[in-house]
Design a protein that fits this description.
single chain, alpha/beta, 2-enoyl-CoA Hydratase, Chain A, domain 1, 3-stranded parallel sheet, 3-stranded mixed sheet, 4 helices, about 25% strand
């Protein structure tokens, strides 16, 4: 569709909120807000069993990468929201090391690297 889509993150786009935001073309964030940490867990907050976890992370990583590409976002950033084993590099700079799922505050998400914002277009009040 040719209709532009926008997300405004007032405070929290954790977990499913991060996936929804990546599905829009333009992301704006309040100065005190965060996005990310979308790793799959059980409804109780516990980790999934190993095989289910691997399968779920693989599927959702593919889905969020495709959504990021379609909407002009960095697919590595999007995948790192879900997959703790995803390292994110831009040029020679490691933006996020392996070992934890990625979460960004508004200042990190709007940081410009090589003239382009890491994720969100700008801070909005």
């Amino acid at each position: 569709t040719n209709i532009p889509t926008y997300t405004f993150i007032n405070t929290n786009a954790g977990s499913a909120g991060a996936i929804i935001a990546i599905a829009t073309q333009h992301i704006f964030m309040a100065p005190v807000s965060a996005i990310g940490a979308a790793a799959p867990i059980l409804p109780t907050g516990e980790d999934l069993p190993a095989t289910a976890k691997e399968k779920t992370i693989s599927y959702w990583s593919a889905l969020i990468r495709g959504s990021a590409i379609k909407n002009g976002h960095n697919p590595d950033i999007a995948e790192a929201f879900i997959n703790k084993d995803k390292e994110v590099k831009i040029g020679d700079r490691v933006v996020h090391p392996r070992g934890a799922v990625l979460a960004l505050n508004a200042q990190e998400a709007t940081e410009r690297i090589n003239g382009k914002p890491l994720l969100a277009e700008r801070l909005s009040i």
